[in-house]
TrEMBL record:
Residues 209-589 form the Peptidase M3A/M3B catalytic domain. InterPro entries: OligopepF_N_dom (IPR013647), OligoPept_F_C (IPR042088), Pept_M3A_M3B (IPR045090), Pept_M3A_M3B_dom (IPR001567), Peptidase_M3B (IPR004438). It comes from Desulfuribacillus stibiiarsenatis. This is Oligopeptidase F. Its EC number is 3.4.24.-.
Length: 609
């Protein structure tokens, strides 16, 4: 945020016109209705205990139980989501914070009450499986039972499960220690900006410094960041080792082959999806190098350093886009998805699913969220710039995915899983890019858009795969028995960076320490899904634009499928096979093609000057 923006006061929520605020009356007409529902759920809770030990008694009692469970879960979800969304409107307000606290407690209570269900189903699995095959009403729970079945061999005895669940709070330790150290204890130094003003470095400002057109600023920020991390590097290494040990422990006690399989199998993702991604991207690195060479040439640098990767290649392009204009773009950009899709988008605008502008106390960022019987709402902090327009497209992707799935699926299979979660949002961003690219005449704007598009590939497909490779290597190292020192970690990390960037970029020594500040390395095999989701979405958008109706039909079927199949099968519905390298190769091809387009645009601009 620059000084000018800081001077403009953020408006109070009351001063914003209603049409720019979401209408949450679909949840509750007023807070009294919230209280009534809270009481209703509370009263149902004691009933849960009466079903313990009875799930295998008869089809009818099982149906009755699952129906009640659904009612409680939907009710609790509504209480939780509504109070959080109201609190997000103004995080300084105490009233909805209070409601949210109560909803959170209620959710935990509900979860604990239902914790007997899975062990009991497992105990009487054959009996319950035969109930499902005999009853139409139980059919919608087939996926739920299948997942338990597939997981069966990794579930331990009651006593062991109880110990693991008692201990699971300890497993959060490394992640929590990391975030306290990295977010609050670490003190960052001052960096001088382009105008010589002293500004304190922070996680949020780091990327702003790296986007500076002044290489001195980028270099100073880069060095300041890693000099700071180097002071604590042994502590970070100890934290990562503790995290890796919990992963290895979980994998061993649950009888998985290794920690990668332990992370992927519960989500029904074959390990080949992960290894395919890494090998395909490694084979495609010359395409990344071509893009980086263009970047080096365009920035007129003798040496391209690790701190030169984020600055836009086309400087001084100003887009100012009002929210109304952005909404019009959406209606145009998503035309390829057909009339029905557009009509739902219009409904989102007209029926006030979207909370558009920033106001005093409003939570930052953007999300799409709702419950089974409310619209999929969107929170934005809309600024009149190109990023906000892409964010709107992104969140509308999530919302329409939710909308279609909730429309077509019973509650049991209406929520989509993480592996496919970023597909619809990225498809929308890609369609928006193609639309804006087509309609923009100005070559500089066009080049700016293409650069923005290509950066999406670089930071999502290439960078996240680099992360995924690092995670795989360090887990394997620990599984072979050795604790990793900070030097080991830095050496492994540097080597992977060298192979990704070394052909074009000066891989500065300090980048070896970057592992220490990446939060995802303290969780578990998560980031690969950004790369796979992005690849799937790119391949899908291509199909939609090239094949038209046939591809659209399949895509909408995918959006309507929720979690009714495993994630790999779901994407096959849309014509994408993530167990093959094809979607990743298709994404790389797109990246390569637009790198050439950018090179030509930049040449034309240069010649016109
Ligand atoms: Zn998203």
């Amino acid at each position: 945020m620059d000084n000018k923006q800081q001077q403009v006061a953020v408006p109070k929520r009351e001063t914003i016109e209603d049409k720019y605020k979401w209408d949450l009356t679909n949840f509750f007409t007023d807070d009294g209705a919230w209280e009534a529902q809270y009481d209703e759920v509370k009263q149902l809770l004691p009933k849960i205990d009466t079903y313990i030990g009875s799930l295998n008694h008869s089809i009818d009692s099982l149906v009755e139980f699952l129906t009640m469970r659904e009612k409680i879960m939907i009710g609790t979800g509504q209480l939780y989501t509504y109070s959080k969304m109201k609190w997000d409107e103004n995080t300084k307000g105490l009233k909805y914070r209070g409601l949210f606290d109560r909803a959170q407690h209620l959710s935990t209570e509900v979860e604990t009450k239902f914790s007997f269900v899975e062990p009991e189903i497992l105990e009487h699995f054959e009996q319950i499986e035969s109930f499902i095959s005999q009853s139409n009403e139980l059919k919608k729970y087939q996926r739920y039972f299948d997942k338990i079945k597939n997981h069966r061999q990794h579930i331990l005895s009651d006593k062991e499960e109880a110990i693991i669940s008692e201990a699971s709070a300890l497993f959060q330790g490394p992640e929590n220690i990391f975030s306290v150290l990295s977010d609050s204890d670490i003190e960052f130094p001052i960096v001088k900006d382009e105008n010589g003003n002293e500004r304190k470095l922070s996680h949020g400002r780091f990327i702003q410094f790296l986007e500076s057109y002044d290489q001195r600023v980028r270099k100073d920020a880069f060095q300041a960041m890693y000099t700071t991390y180097s002071k604590y590097i042994n502590t970070f290494a100890t934290i990562i080792n503790a995290h890796l040990k919990t992963d290895v422990f979980t994998a061993r006690v649950r009888k998985y082959d290794n920690s990668l399989q332990a992370a992927l199998k519960p989500n029904e993702i074959p390990v080949e999806v992960y290894t395919n991604l890494i090998s395909t991207i490694n084979e495609s690195l010359p395409v990344l190098h071509k893009y980086l060479s263009l970047r080096k040439q365009q920035l007129k640098l003798d040496e391209l350093h690790m701190y030169d990767l984020y600055v836009p290649m086309v400087p001084n392009v100003q887009f100012s886009i009002s929210y109304e204009q952005a909404c019009e773009y959406m209606e145009q950009a998503f035309r390829p998805l057909g009339n029905e899709y557009i009509s739902i988008i219009q409904k989102a605008f007209q029926e006030r699913w979207i909370d558009v502008y920033e106001n005093e106390g409003k939570t930052s960022g953007a999300y799409s969220w709702g419950t089974h019987n409310t619209p999929p709402y969107i929170l934005l902090n809309y600024q009149e710039n190109i990023n906000s327009v892409f964010t709107l497209a992104h969140e509308l992707g999530h919302s329409l995915h939710s909308y279609y799935s909730k429309q077509e699926q019973p509650f049991a299979t209406s929520e989509y899983v993480i592996f496919v979660a970023e597909v619809a949002s990225t498809v929308n961003e890609t369609l928006l890019f193609h639309y804006l690219f087509q309609k923009t005449e100005d070559k500089k704007l066009k080049a700016y858009l293409v650069n923005h598009y290509l950066e999406g590939f670089r930071t999502t497909i290439f960078r996240q795969t680099l992360f995924a490779e690092f995670e795989k290597v360090i887990h394997e190292a620990l599984e072979q028995g050795d604790a990793l020192t900070s030097e080991d970690l830095s050496e492994i990390y540097y080597k992977i960076n060298q192979s990704f960037y070394g052909a074009v970029v000066i891989v500065d020594k300090d980048i070896a320490l970057e592992w220490a500040r990446i939060p995802h390395f303290y969780y578990n095999f998560y980031v690969y899904q950004y790369a796979t989701g992005y690849s799937a979405a790119t391949a899908l958008a291509r199909k939609i634009l090239q094949d038209g109706d046939e591809a659209v039909k399949k895509y909408l079927e995918f959006l309507s499928s929720g979690s009714s199949k495993d994630p790999i099968e779901l994407l096959k519905v849309a014509g994408i096979d993530m167990t093959s390298a094809e979607p990743i190769k298709a994404a790389i091809k797109e990246f390569d093609m637009y790198t050439d387009i950018l090179a030509n645009l930049l040449k034309d601009i240069e010649n016109e000057l």
